[in-house]
């Protein structure tokens, strides 16, 4: 099932963000927050159910994925994300893992709006050429 909003342009390209969480309301809240924070800069979101992640990754290009830790850690999902080199913001209930590091951007659930926005901005910054950062 596909849920999402139209993707405006980000610089010279469309910035598509895939959100995957087993709890639809968590994904919907993240989508609303991303649209409010980055929509004017050209970010568009798509929500996918965990079972649909492989299909989404193989059929569409995403600049970033916001994903639940347990879903991201499944071997087939980790391999797909690594193969495509898609930056990820990891959502987790394990608050001791939360933070911004060189390797991972991890946000504790329930997420604080400012922390999720900061993690997404950092992921976009890391993945974008200097002329296209927010």
Describe this structure in words.
There is one protein chain. The protein is an alpha/beta fold. 38% of the residues lie in helices and 25% in strands. The protein has helices at residues 24-38, 53-59, 69-72, 75-84, 113-127; strands at 3-4, 9-10, 13-20, 43-48, 64-68, 88-92, 99-100, 105-108. The termini are far apart.
**Helix segment count?**
5
- The CATH homologous superfamily name equals Response regulator
Tell me the β content.
25-35%
Second CATH tier, the architecture: 3-Layer(aba) Sandwich
In the residues, how many domains can be counted? 1
Q: How do the strands and helices of this protein lay out in sequence?
A:
Blueprint: E1 3-4, E2 9-10, E3 13-20, H1 24-38, E4 43-48, H2 53-59, E5 64-68, H3 69-72, H4 75-84, E6 88-92, E7 99-100, E8 105-108, H5 113-127
Parallel strand pairs: 3-4, 3-5, 5-6, 6-8
Antiparallel strand pairs: 1-4, 2-3, 7-8
Helix pairs in contact: 1-5
């Amino acid at each position: 099932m596909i849920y999402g909003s139209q993707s405006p342009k980000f610089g010279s390209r469309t910035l598509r963000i895939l959100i995957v969480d087993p709890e639809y309301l968590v994904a919907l809240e993240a989508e609303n927050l991303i649209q409010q924070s980055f929509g004017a800069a050209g970010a568009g979101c798509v929500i996918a159910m965990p079972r649909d992640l492989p299909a989404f990754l193989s059929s569409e290009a995403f600049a970033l994925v916001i994903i639940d830790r347990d879903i991201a850690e499944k071997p087939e999902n980790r391999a797909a994300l690594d193969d495509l080199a898609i930056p990820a913001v990891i959502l987790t209930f394990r608050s001791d893992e939360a933070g911004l590091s060189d390797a991972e951007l991890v946000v504790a659930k329930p997420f604080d709006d400012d922390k999720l926005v900061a993690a997404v901005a950092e992921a976009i910054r890391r993945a974008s050429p200097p002329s296209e950062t927010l």
